[in-house]
């Protein structure tokens, strides 16, 4: 049966067009219940054991997803109209409800009510889309009731007052979320229920501890219509709020409309915005643009100190002198940056947070319900008020809490308990916290994903050998060089001298796409994960281990499938020709960086493999020098290496990671392979190639580097990457570590490199600043990065080995993929750093010690130091809590802080001696305290 739907829409060019869509209706869509006597039950998911079949509306999915994921909630019908509406409103929740519908352990069934002849409803004249969808849900509930003939109860779950009323009037059974959960007689389950806040929802059945009449603490958010108008007339400014990691009372909003960062001081001016929210900001009057010079806030400061009643007008807004008594130090100074306050939230960034409870001094009431404040491990997140029926079991646990609402009369946001992670301080628990905080999917791969893998043991097939598009390169002396203990080996090299003095050099990359096919559950899972995540003690794989450590890993002495880039190079590392081919290789050695370096350094070793290594190293040095001459930056980072106990997984030793020539050699050829592939795919697919760019840092971003350099007498030229690279080369002093420290500071001022679709930007924007390369992509690590999987498919299509998957013709979808890859890549980096911080705490827990550190940033009440020996950075305080700090003055121009009483001073990059010790100034918030040792 065919239905036609027509509507009008406005194009980007401003033309109004009529769109007609055909909507096919069927009568053979199954209900999904095992007790049905009409439908095919072979793929049924709704159990006969449950007392009722639940039909949920859109808002239940959007707001109660934590509850729906609990094992107690089962036998649920998710209608297609609900699924589509959730997809349009919240992709994160959409992905979670989809996962529930495919989870074999959960009885969730998707019913295509929009395509069933008996459940499809047309929109009525004057009916809003929301009312039409509510009616469609009730029609579907009626159909289930009639279709199953009363053999089981059909229960509509909704918190919408009007929807519930109409359902009951129409003869349906309907309940609110709260009343249904109460009927399950599992009191602890009520902790998961989100308390409704809107006036048009039913909430009388739930105990809402929030007071109805209190003094206003925060400004009411402006309505979106007023925000939109204000943004248009530049009265308001839009941007993402970033909260200072050292000072949760200070935030920044990058605004394109004024081309600068707007500083937000204090919780009142943040006005219930969370880190990562897209906000609308109003500038304060210019006479209030004062700031406390580069303030550090101590960890035991309480946000109670920053909560004041909202002023009656902007003119009465609290000055910085009233913002948190933690702002000890020098007097307020006139700010060169604009200062403002949040007047509205455009897009929330609320998520689930990890932390622990601080019980409130209130007796348990209402049937054992206790009120508590949740303290997130992330200091940028304010305390969250929750109510729970299991306070005794949670006080010593790391738990997850989700935010539900934040009323302007409430000091804290209101949320609900989600689940318990484990005992506070336990290494496994704290490692899981790192993963959750950074949205890392560490769940085991599903049976559907694992079903996509070839059976083990895997070996080359006759079809692989007979494939005309795959070249047999098993005769070549191929080898890999990786970190010690590496099992997911996805790149290897060969270097063969020609009679004419040139070299054939090949980069061979694991042919992951031979096993990961577009559109399969394996591919979708890899696309969602985006990248493997490397923690100190473990690896979270993007792909299942049979692929990463066996089938695709280019281990020694086994035949493997590869995708190869092969160059002919002169002895001067000039590329004469390039070819690309799918291949078969057999690696002769899997070396570690240390082993490869030892071979190259030992003049007694003259075997063919060592000769290949030396030839490659010679070429790599020339290539590296040529890149530097073009303007590529040689930066530095504080990479830390742990020695881990094989049984307890606790750190035994900690130190800086050593970079050898062997590391740089491999890096050089991987860079060259990525550049060659970028050129090839862009030539064939100029509008849909996945590339990687590194935007030029702004002068404002480089200001901290310039300021510190000037303070020590350095003049850095930042007019181009070439001039900056030359300046960094000349930044030398008597101290051998001085240059590396300057390069570390430069690294921190850089923008993030990002993935993008070539159709979204102009060629001038493709440039990679750090590599000084006009084109770049990622091709060399498909085992651990999904970006490389996409690029492999593009290269195969460019070589006409395979067809280009249809997704590459969908520009918006490609942009979504690139955005997700950037998000996942950044989260993986943050998780790795957090894992290092966790294991640093574990290492120093029983090892207090004195060591040397370098001052890298001056503050009003102290400075930030970097400890080269351990790669640690943190604040050193010159004033204690409550100390007004009047004896210390900061000279920002010369990056110096001086005690006016004793005339003792400290300056940027100075070496100081500090004491390292783990302390716990707040319950459940251990930190590594760095204390200055007076010399």
UniProtKB/TrEMBL annotation:
Specify the PIN domain's residue ranges: 52-165
Identify the main location: nucleus
Gene Ontology MF annotations? 3'-5'-RNA exonuclease activity; endonuclease activity; RNA binding
GO cellular component terms, alphabetically, are: cytoplasmic exosome (RNase complex); nuclear exosome (RNase complex)
Keywords assigned: Exonuclease, Exosome, Hydrolase, Magnesium, Nuclease, Nucleus, RNA-binding, rRNA processing
* An annotated GO BP: rRNA catabolic process
Q: Which cofactor does it need?
A: Mg(2+)
Q: Where are the transmembrane segments?
A: none
The residues covered by the RNB domain are: 470-801
Compartments, as annotated in UniProt: Nucleus
The record ties this protein, via Pfam families, to: OB_Dis3, PIN_4, RNB, Rrp44_CSD1, Rrp44_S1
| SMART domains, per the entry | PINc, RNB
For this chain, the family text in UniProt reads: Belongs to the RNR ribonuclease family.
Protein name (Swiss-Prot/TrEMBL)? Exosome complex exonuclease RRP44 homolog A
Name the source organism: Dendrobium nobile (Orchid)
